[in-house]
Write a structure and sequence with these properties.
It is a single chain. By secondary structure, this protein is α+β, with helices and mostly antiparallel strands. It has 2 domains: 70 residues, no CATH class; 216 residues. Helix content is 70%, strand content 10%. A 4-stranded antiparallel β-sheet has the order 2-3-1-4. The chain is elongated, with a radius of gyration of 36 Å. It starts with 5 loop residues before the first helix and ends with a helix.
Length: 292
């Protein structure tokens, strides 16, 4: 097969310029008509919330300094860590939006439930965040329903998050009660031991040191329990979720991207027209050589 020069390659393109123009236009029109007639437009509604724990940190930690210093100095910091207010990471918060019970509440309050299930609602949700700012995006073919789901999810999440925090706090309070009861018994036993040792006129230094530590731990646990009860009373969970933006009904589809698809289709048509042009030229030249 003879190599084609640049001049010959350009002449081939010029000779079949109609084909090179017609094929991309055909691809462009076909893709555009197909998208307009058969593609289902997808709309996206967004709501934005802020989930922050700073209010809790300022309120609690400023009052806990003395207790925490004592716990750290006496190598029993684990009590402070164990009784800490439960905090979720970003991934944990994102998973909360996919909770079946939460989505079931959203589904039950939808004004239109036709052709949609809880699982489908879950697949519509996209959560993104920048630090403590979370954007809830809902994609649906019905723009009104997309906005309704986004707003309902925001509303329901507030109470759901508060319930989660309340249950978590109650678990810690119950744990604190159990440990406080145990430490109370330890204090009573240490006090009786000291009394016995004093009656026998024996050294009570070790027993008194043990009693002092037990009392400090007991006081620290009482303080932690009071903190948790205060948080539970003010419903911190609901106070930490702030709605920054309610979803509005989108008026423009986000998918499919008609411009991009038509552009790719036109480009594909152009490439195919070039390949077809050189293939036809090769076929013609081969036929001429065979006849010769």
């Amino acid at each position: 097969m003879e190599e084609m020069t640049l001049r010959e390659a350009i002449e081939v393109l010029i000779k079949r310029k109609k084909l090179i123009i017609a094929v991309p236009i055909l691809f462009m029109l076909a893709s555009y008509i197909f998208l307009k007639l058969f593609a289902v437009p997808i709309y996206e509604a967004e709501s934005v919330i802020s989930i922050s724990g700073e209010y809790y940190d300022d309120m609690i930690n400023s009052k806990a300094t003395d207790t925490n210093i004592y716990l750290a100095e006496n190598n029993i910091k684990f009590i402070d860590n164990l009784m800490d207010y439960p905090k979720l990471g970003v991934n944990g918060l994102k998973k909360m939006f996919q909770d079946h019970n939460l989505l079931s509440e959203v589904y039950n309050d939808l004004s239109v439930k036709d052709n949609i299930t809880v699982s489908q609602i879950s697949n519509m949700i996209q959560i993104s965040n920048a630090e403590d700012i979370f954007t809830i995006s809902i994609r649906d073919k019905d723009p009104k329903r997309a906005a309704e789901i986004a707003n309902l999810l925001t509303e329901k999440f507030n109470s759901y998050f508060n319930d989660y925090n309340r249950k978590s706090i109650q678990v810690l309070i119950n744990y604190a009660d159990n440990v406080i009861e145990k430490k109370s018994k330890d204090i009573e036993e240490s006090s009786r031991e000291i009394e016995t040792l004093e009656n026998k006129e024996e050294n009570t230094d070790v027993a008194k040191a043990r009693l002092a530590i037990s009392k400090k731990i007991y006081e620290a646990l009482l303080f932690k329990k009071e903190q948790l009860e205060m948080i539970e009373a003010i419903e911190f969970g609901s106070r930490s979720v702030i709605v920054l933006k309610h979803a509005s009904i989108p008026n423009k589809a986000v998918a499919p991207d008609i411009k991009l698809i038509v552009l790719l289709s036109t480009s594909t048509g152009f490439v195919l027209s070039i390949l077809t042009t050189y293939f036809l030229e090769y076929w013609r030249n081969s036929a001429l050589k065979t006849e010769a």
